[in-house]
Design brief:
Blueprint: E1 2-6, H1 15-28, E2 32-35, H2 43-52, E3 58-61, E4 64-65, H3 71-84, E5 89-94, H4 98-103, H5 112-127, E6 134-135, E7 140-141, E8 164-167, H6 171-180, E9 183-187, H7 194-207, E10 216-225, H8 229-246, H9 254-261, H10 265-276, H11 280-286, H12 289-294, E11 297-299, H13 301-314, E12 318-322, H14 328-343
Parallel strand pairs: 1-2, 1-12, 2-3, 3-5, 4-5, 5-8, 8-9, 9-10, 10-11, 10-12
Antiparallel strand pairs: 6-7
Length: 344
């Protein structure tokens, strides 16, 4: 099992620290550094910045938002980043959610699975440097009855194939990831519940005539070392509350639905109710200890080591950690300790 680091979002005064973390992860032999985007910092610019100041670590989008870019623009960006990084770019894609898709990008959040399939088709077609012609439900290239012409990407990516990852939560989206992608970007991944998710991915792999060999299972897992488990969990609870309670509406929140499927229905409802009422402290306090513990790495080093083995045994191939709390020195120490544990 390889290691990765998720740098999250930039632009909140943490830019310098995130670069230091990426550089330290590079020195320690981490496999990949991911950057995210929502409606603040974009991931592409961040990844170019990180790639320019690291040597061997891959850089990956976790994720580029599908409604925020045309598929051709994503192919251009992916090819450029792969060239600038000397073949170190990984393309992670996701549909985002209805609030961001429709409120920020002005793109209807309808039939996201079909839209994703067409999007990936066009990205792969463009990256293969074939002339791009496509007739789909959501995308038609070139547009008919106009001056548009089928074009070919002029940038040569370093690699024959840039790996494509999908962020997926629901069963059908997981099947799609298995069918059309090279890896899965997971959130709130629990080894105890992983079998169902991986079953859906295997269904997709089998549909495409492929095995799980080479398919990258990549959860982002919060990491906090310490002797007091409750104190460690308290540092993660606000993050969990934001997603379970606030990433979406009362009617449609994929993370809330995931927590419910994991057996935390009552607590998830309590978190959401408090968060939407803007009582963020109460929302964080309502996140169950069990939920934090099973989706994070917390506690003394020996306990974290045991939990790492559980993640690996459950099917994780790249364990990506988020070290979002503590001073920069403490966060660097966490990365070093994790690397030591992985090599022990």
């Amino acid at each position: 099992m390889k290691l990765g680091i998720n740098l999250g979002y930039w632009g909140a005064g943490n830019d310098a620290d995130n670069l230091v973390l990426a550089q330290e992860a590079d020195r320690l032999g981490y496999s990949v550094a991911w950057a995210a985007e929502a409606y603040g910092s974009d991931a592409a610019t961040v990844l170019a910045w990180v790639a320019a100041q690291t040597a061997t670590i891959d850089v990956g989008s976790a994720v580029f938002q599908i409604p925020g870019r045309t598929p051709a623009n994503t192919a251009m960006t992916a090819a450029t980043l792969d060239t600038l990084s000397a073949g170190r770019f990984r393309l992670g894609l996701g549909v985002s959610g209805p609030q961001v898709s429709e409120g920020w990008h002005g793109v209807r959040f309808d039939r996201p699975l079909r839209r994703t399939r067409e999007y990936v088709d066009i990205v792969r077609l463009a990256l293969s440097r074939q002339r791009v012609k496509y007739q789909g439900e959501f995308f038609t290239l070139p547009l008919p009855d106009g001056p548009g012409k089928a074009l070919t990407l002029t940038v040569h990516p370093v690699r024959e194939q840039i790996p494509i990852y999908l962020a997926a939560i629901g069963p059908k989206n997981l099947e799609l990831a298995g069918e059309i992608a090279d890896g899965w970007l997971a959130v709130f991944y629990s080894p105890r519940h992983a079998a169902e998710s991986l079953k859906s991915i295997r269904i997709g792999r089998e549909r495409a005539g492929r095995s799980m060999d080479g398919f990258d299972v990549v959860p982002t897992v919060p990491l906090v070392f310490g002797d007091d488990l409750t104190a460690c969990a308290d540092q993660i609870r606000p993050y969990a509350a934001l997603y379970v309670g606030g990433m979406g509406s009362r009617e449609q929140n994929f993370y809330h639905a995931l927590a419910c499927r994991m057996g935390h229905e009552a607590a998830a409802d309590q978190v959401q109710q408090a968060f939407l009422a803007r009582d963020y402290a109460a929302a964080a306090a309502a996140v169950p200890m069990e939920f934090v513990d099973e989706t994070s790495l917390i506690g003394p080093a020996a306990r974290v080591k045991e939990r790492m083995e559980e993640f690996a045994a459950s099917g994780v191939t790249t364990l990506t950690v988020a070290v979002n709390t503590g001073s920069i020195d403490e966060r660097i120490a966490s990365l070093r300790t994790l690397a030591d544990l992985a090599s022990a």
